[in-house]
Amino acid sequence: MSDAVGRRVRMVAGLLVLAELVVYVLVAQWIGLGWTILATLATTVLGWMLLARQGTRALADLRERARTRRSPGAELGNAGLVAAGGLLMVLPGFIGDVVGLLCLLPGTRSLVRGILTRLVLARLPAGLRPPVRVESVRTVEVPRADDVRTDRPSPPVIEGEVVRGPDGRPLA
């Protein structure tokens, strides 16, 4: 990891810890320290329960995909989000609990996955972002059978070779 990336990660982690402390103090002032500690313990227990339940489902989905020899696709992403969400719920802090809950609940997991996908794709170099770009070696005009109008040219046929699929992996 380069120094710039490491500094950025440490800065974000520090800001998150500071934000958690501020929210914790504000909640303690609002409902009292005892209730805040009780709420923290309750969200930890809830996190363990949700992690166990959703984690079991995610692993069962992965096993089923492996058994039928299908690509894990979204199930692998779900398992990762469940693991991250469970960790965030188990750790103390209300901001992490909210984000963890969004990762653990099946209804909001696709929203989190979409946000993460956009963030990752925005950081990729332009050549690696979908859709796949195809370079043409030659174009040929081909008349369309259903096109009775002759004042409009027919679309070009582009000869090329698909070297990567929609997921960015090379085709075998």
Automatic annotation (TrEMBL):
<dbReference type="Pfam" id="PF04186">
    <property type="entry name" value="FxsA"/>
</dbReference>
<feature type="compositionally biased region" description="Basic and acidic residues">
    <location>
        <begin position="161"/>
        <end position="172"/>
    </location>
</feature>
<dbReference type="InterPro" id="IPR007313">
    <property type="entry name" value="FxsA"/>
</dbReference>
<feature type="transmembrane region" description="Helical">
    <location>
        <begin position="12"/>
        <end position="31"/>
    </location>
</feature>
<keyword id="KW-0812">Transmembrane</keyword>
<protein>
    <submittedName>
        <fullName>UPF0716 protein FxsA</fullName>
    </submittedName>
</protein>
<feature type="transmembrane region" description="Helical">
    <location>
        <begin position="37"/>
        <end position="55"/>
    </location>
</feature>
<feature type="region of interest" description="Disordered">
    <location>
        <begin position="146"/>
        <end position="172"/>
    </location>
</feature>
<keyword id="KW-1133">Transmembrane helix</keyword>
<feature type="transmembrane region" description="Helical">
    <location>
        <begin position="76"/>
        <end position="95"/>
    </location>
</feature>
<dbReference type="GO" id="GO:0016020">
    <property type="term" value="C:membrane"/>
</dbReference>
<keyword id="KW-0472">Membrane</keyword>
